[in-house]
Design a protein that fits this description.
The complex is a heterodimer. Chain A is of the alpha+beta class. Chain A folds into 2 domains: 218 residues, Rossmann fold (3-Layer(aba) Sandwich), CATH 3.40.50; 132 residues, OB fold (Dihydrolipoamide Acetyltransferase, E2P). Helix content of chain A is 23%, strand content 37%. Chain A contains 9 helices and 20 strands. In chain A, strands 6-7-8-3-9-10 form a 6-stranded mixed sheet, with helices on both faces. In chain A, helix 3 runs antiparallel to helix 4. Chain A starts with a strand and ends with a strand. By secondary structure, chain B is mainly alpha-helical. Chain B is 80% helix and 0% strand. Classes of the chains: A alpha+beta, B mainly alpha.
Chain lengths: 357, 279
């Protein structure tokens, strides 16, 4: 288990400040943030390579805020592997290994048996990263820290390395904290997501929550929510039980009218009247050639501006009274609906698909 | 119809006409510079090299002087390695207050005239000073002794070692040590298992440079120690006492001696004497 409480650390002029989050025992945590957010500084602070100037770090329940790196029972894998260039593949994997049998096991599992005697300088980028992972895991760490471990790999190799790591992770159930700038990694791998920017945590929680309920427009934009609209929110007296006499208004989600430009969107939430942002994921928006009679509260007529096919998914940008809305539909649906720039369509989404922040 | 600005090609054309002349001028300046550096050394070795080598067999004073020079320089280099390596490491890795000032102080002996360095050492290490008296009671006489020669050599060569060793450590990414520490190494163990093996070529090159500098020292040594005579002092003495003809062989032998560290450095850097064919 990794627990950080108001942790601050500094490297030169750059600092991470007031970092608080938990990664439960055996969980897979993801720190997401743009380049320069402080992700590597954070990981190095947890590893003990950068001193923590304030706050508390516990690993597996022990306070290790000031402990030397070698006492933390963790391993760290950087994006650029940092294999010891004066050692062979086998010697690298054996460097901190708990036993010779573990070295042999790791070499076999990561398919490194044939290159075990080679100097690491001659390995490809993918092989180097496999050796780095094997070396880290041969120590049998209680916590594995991964700093963009897949970023330097080609897509095919990335799948292989990620799959092998996941297999070992599910077998051993150590705690993992992985840093990435790629929000797709967070959705694919994580139990806990932490969004970091400019040295501070913007939001921490299950990745699903980050995707569906981003705490701010910055988080929404970073994690790839396609529709982030600025406007004004106003709670509305809609129908019971929303405003039923005696109901505890603080605990209930209210119907909200969110106005952006000439359109008004129906949403739900706890909102203070005034300026707000509405976040709608592209895959929550449906497209139809005719107005549909359904429970969907938001339905707007618009005109297709652009289609961006990407394999089985096509992103369709629809102009709704000057507001561009991006919908993600299957490419097959886009073909069946004969979508093309200039075509009139209806874009619809449920009030529950609108997240206000 | 709008008029388009004319694109002139006058300047590049003029430059291309001047290019051959510029090339000749640059080549001439470089040749003169190389001639200035090489001619005295080649002249010296040519005039006294063979006689110097022959003298090595017959002139016991020259032999003793060379042995003393090489021995004292080796000892000074060993002391520099022992004392200055941690300093170089601290300067490369440490983020402490006063680091820049410490680096500047260590560089200072490189910038002062070497007789001044000798005078400074004399002020601290002469028998009449507290430190010199303490050393005397320990049986270490600095002035007029091998100890003084080693001190003078160490003073002028150690800063070069620190500077080059610091560069060698700088070239090793600290994250290698970081990874080693997360794999269970203490700071010292990580340094021994990772940093030193990665920096050893640079450290050895630093030691060779320091040794070469120590061998060639004259100004600081002659203030502290006239006897026993190192090779540079012997060559000076023979020049002043017997003239150029007697000084030439000793001086030529010193130039030939300097080729040893030069060759070692080149071998360490993997430089070839002949250009490699391009693949």
């Amino acid at each position: 288990m990794i627990t950080l409480r108001e942790v601050s650390a500094r490297v030169g002029d750059f600092a991470v400040e007031d970092i608080t989050f938990d990664v439960p025992q055996g969980a897979y945590g993801i720190v997401i943030g743009p380049t320069g957010a402080g992700k590597t500084t954070l990981v190095e602070a947890i590893a003990g390579l950068v001193p923590i100037t304030h706050g508390m770090l516990t690993l597996g329940g022990s306070d290790l805020t000031r402990a030397a790196p070698e006492r933390r029972r963790l391993s760290l894998v950087y994006q650029h592997a940092y294999l010891f260039p004066h050692l062979s593949v086998r010697e690298n994997v054996a460097y901190g290994a708990v036993g010779a049998n573990v070295v042999a096991e790791m070499l076999e599992r990561f398919g490194l048996g044939e290159v075990a005697g080679r100097n690491v300088r001659v390995l490809s980028g993918g092989e180097r990263q496999l050796v780095a992972l094997a070396r880290a895991l041969a120590r049998r760490p209680e916590v594995l820290l991964l700093d963009e471990p897949f970023a330097a790999l080609d897509p095919r190799r990335r799948v292989v390395v990620r799959r092998e790591l996941r297999t070992i992770y599910f077998e051993r159930r150590f705690t993992v904290l992985q840093v990435t700038h790629d929000f797709h990694e967070a959705g694919l791998l994580g139990d806990v997501g932490v969004v970091l920017d400019r040295g501070r945590v913007l939001q921490a929680g299950p990745p699903e929550e980050l995707f569906r309920r981003p705490a701010s427009p910055v988080v929404a934009d970073f994690i790839g929510a396609e529709n982030v609209l600025a406007g004004r929110a106003q709670p509305i007296r809609d129908a019971e039980p929303d405003w039923a006499p005696g109901a505890d208004a603080e605990d209930m989600e209210h119907a909200v009218a969110f106005t952006t430009g000439p359109i008004t969107i129906y949403a739900l939430g706890h909102v203070i009247p005034g300026t707000a942002h509405a976040v709608i994921r592209a895959d929550e928006i449906w497209l139809a050639r005719a107005a549909a009679s359904s429970s969907v509260r938001n339905q707007f007529q618009g005109r297709v501006l652009e289609l961006s096919p990407a394999g089985a998914i096509t992103r369709v940008t629809v102009d709704v009274s000057g507001i561009p809305l991006v919908a993600a539909v299957t490419t097959r649906s886009a073909q069946e609906l004969q979508l093309a720039p200039g075509v009139e369509v209806f874009a619809a989404f449920k009030a529950t698909a609108v997240h206000l922040c | 119809m709008p008029t388009l600005p004319l694109i002139t090609t006058d300047t590049p054309a003029r430059e291309s006409r001047l290019e051959p002349i510029l090339s000749v001028l640059v080549a001439l300046a470089a040749s003169l510079f190389l001639l200035f550096l090489v001619a005295p050394l080649v002249g010296l070795v040519g005039a006294g090299g063979l006689r110097g080598l022959r003298l090595l067999g017959s002139d016991s004073e020259l032999r003793a002087s060379l042995l003393l020079t090489v021995g004292a320089a080796t000892l000074a280099t060993a002391l520099a390695i022992a004392g200055a390596t941690p300093v170089a490491y601290a300067l490369a890795r440490g983020r402490f207050r006063g680091r820049a000032l410490l680096a500047a102080i260590i560089d200072l002996p490189l910038l002062i005239p070497h007789p001044v360095a000798g005078i400074a050492l004399l002020l601290v290490l002469a028998r009449g000073t507290p430190l010199g008296a303490a050393l005397w009671t320990l049986g270490l006489q600095v002035t007029g002794s091998v100890t003084g020669i080693v001190c003078a050599m160490l003073f002028v060569s150690a800063p070069l070692y620190v500077s080059a060793a610091r560069e060698a450590f700088d070239r090793v990414d600290p994250r290698f040590e970081g990874v080693a520490r997360t794999l269970g190494d203490t700071r010292w163990r990580a340094m021994r298992r990772v940093t030193l093996p990665l920096a050893w070529k640079g450290l050895l090159a630093a030691a060779i440079v320091a040794w070469a500098r120590a061998v060639s020292e004259f100004g600081a040594i002659i203030i502290l120690v006239y006897h026993p005579r190192v090779a540079s002092v012997l060559s000076y003495e023979r020049f002043t006492a017997f003239g150029l003809r007697e000084a030439l062989p000793v001086a030529a032998v010193l130039v030939l001696l300097a080729l040893i560290p030069l060759a070692a450095l080149r071998a360490l850097r993997g430089d070839d004497l002949l250009p490699q064919r391009r693949r």
